[in-house]
Write a structure and sequence with these properties.
Length: 152
């Protein structure tokens, strides 16, 4: 088996690249995709220089680093500027939460999707009791601004 990999190093690099590209679909962070690009570059070198494993590794590392430091930030910035993009924090807006500590205009606590957040009331005159359902109006830093879901 080891002899086969020495003779067909391109196939080993190709498998590594495919596994990394497949794993990228789980993270969607573009990091594993850039590493996959390095593995594919090493596979290309291995086709022409099958016994030069050191050259393959160097090319793979250089291409992966170049993609991580040069291409990834540009792609992430473009993706974040795309219409309709919402990060995990902005997805909280409109969510329903359950009050775990009474909420005033300056203090409180809610549980959203299993996570506990500090919260404050949208309306300074409204106090929300423990156990009430609320909706998230906006995110202010690390505090959720909420209003009662079952009250007018």
């Amino acid at each position: 088996m080891g002899e086969w990999f020495r003779e067909h190093a391109w196939a080993a690099w190709l498998m590594v690249g495919l596994v990394l590209a497949g794993a990228e679909m789980l993270t969607l962070d573009l990091t594993l995709l850039m590493l996959s690009g390095g593995a594919f570059a090493a596979a290309g070198v291995a086709v022409f220089l099958p016994h030069a494993w050191l050259v393959q590794v160097i090319v793979g590392v250089v291409v992966a680093l170049a993609m991580l430091l040069g291409l990834r930030p540009t792609l992430l910035a473009r993706m974040r500027r795309a219409p309709g993009y919402r990060n995990s924090i902005s997805k909280l807006v409109g969510s329903t939460a359950l009050t775990t500590r009474a909420i005033s205009h300056s203090d409180g606590e809610v549980k959203v999707n299993g996570d506990t957040w500090t919260a404050r009331s949208y309306d300074p005159k409204v106090t929300i009791e423990v156990g009430e359902r609320v909706e998230v109006y906006e995110v202010d830093g690390t505090t959720l601004v909420v209003y009662p879901a079952d009250r007018p």
